[in-house]
């Protein structure tokens, strides 16, 4: 049974994971949007590719303000965030043509939130057959596109 996959291009993301602090607060004002894979900015929120994706095109949408739960957002912030999630889904529909989505929010560490202090919404495209034998036999998930390639697809290119 294989327990390792060789993917040296991912090393920069592994090293970034050790970074202390909130990834969303660190990304919300960055000038080089490609460096942090910022897909879109709106008045109160922004979206970015997840650098540890569950699947190709995994995007996270977050408010600019650092709050841990949805009820702490103003009506304007919440509306803006949900509208951004909708626009992100439409973009993914157009560029990647998935068969479905997992869209969800993990609130609190016990619920699986990697950054529990800054609420965010995961938008994960899904395709029929995108789960194969690898998670079962090797405890590994295959993501076939690099983050740079996915960013270019979402920002410019067509599939």
Q: Element order, helices and strands?
A: HHEEEHEEHH
General form: globular
Q: Tell me the number of structural domains.
A: 1
Alpha-beta content class:
alpha+beta
Number of helices: 5
CATH superfamily membership: HIT-like
CATH topological fold name: HIT family, subunit A
> N-to-C terminal Cα separation, in Å?
34 Å
Plain-language structure description:
The chain has 159 residues and is α+β, with helices and mostly antiparallel strands. The chain has a single domain, classed as HIT family, subunit A. The chain is 30% helix and 16% strand. It contains five helices and five strands; from the N terminus they run ααβββαββαα. Strands 1-2-3-5-4 form a five-stranded antiparallel β-sheet. A hairpin with a 3-residue loop joins β1 and β2. The longest helix has 22 residues. The chain is globular and about 35 Å long. It starts with 10 loop residues before the first helix and ends with a helix. About 4% of the residues have low confidence.
